[in-house]
Design brief:
The chain is mostly beta strands and 233 residues long. It has one domain. Helices cover 6% and strands 51% of the residues. A hairpin with a 5-residue loop joins strand 14 and strand 15.
Length: 233
């Protein structure tokens, strides 16, 4: 949930539908007035790597996608909405009135998913879902193109990708100007956060007033924040 400068509230949530016994969710970004009135949907994205739940005679099995393209959205200082929800390299920009402004894209060939990328994820899912009958996994051939992104006060955009291997000391980032033109590749301090079933996603960082903050932890009871200054050449 994000509070805009004009006191509007934006929230990313799920819609759930059951179709012939199949759980079929979609990602929805909604806009809410300062008084709590629903003002409409900014976007809905259905092709998100669904979770299937099948009832069997003696057991429940969860079919879980690894690295699904979860939705990510940010606001700039003028309440323009930036969002990325597919596994493609594209960020949409929407005005406060809901009008399409631009699409930021980059031709990429995401790296292949390797066993070392999935081992911890699969172990965490199996541990979290051990009370059920079992879990089976759908693993994509390639990583999603975008892991996260940040909008700076000058409306430059830093996109975090999965380009670097999981054992790399840094994350790979792409810097775009305020018109969506690619400027350069940059190294980004490595961060992660346990957000779902104990699985690590690249969501544990924020940018504020020229500083980049990462949320780190030794374990679930020992969290700490690191602060980095962002500078321009």
């Amino acid at each position: 949930m994000i509070f805009a400068e004009q006191n509007y509230i934006y929230s990313l949530t799920y819609k759930t539908n059951f179709i012939e016994g199949k759980y079929s969710p979609s990602i929805v970004l909604v806009k809410i007035s300062p008084t709590g009135k629903f003002l409409g949907e900014i976007f809905e994205y259905r092709d998100i790597g669904e979770e299937y739940w099948f009832e069997k005679s003696k057991e429940n099995i969860i079919y879980q996608y690894l690295y699904p393209p979860f939705g990510t959205f940010k606001l700039d200082a003028d309440d323009f909405v930036y969002y990325a929800v597919s596994d493609k390299y594209e960020i949409n920009v929407i005005s406060p009135k809901g009008e399409f402004v631009r699409k930021i894209i980059k031709a990429t060939k995401p790296r292949k998913v390797k066993e070392k990328d999935t081992a911890k994820h699969i172990s965490a899912f199996k541990k979290a879902l051990s009370r059920y009958g079992g879990v089976e996994f759908f693993i994509p051939d390639r990583m999603p193109a975008i892991a996260d992104f940040f909008v700076f006060e000058n409306k430059y955009i830093l996109v975090i990708t999965f380009e670097n291997p999981i054992d790399s000391p840094t994350l790979s980032g792409d810097l775009f100007d305020d018109e969506g033109n690619f400027l350069s590749k940059v190294d980004v301090p490595k961060y992660h956060h346990s957000t779902y079933w104990g699985v690590l996603f690249k969501k544990g960082a924020i940018y504020k007033n020229t500083y980049f903050y990462t949320l780190e932890y030794k374990d679930e009871d020992n969290l700490f924040v690191k602060r980095y200054r962002v500078s321009w050449n």
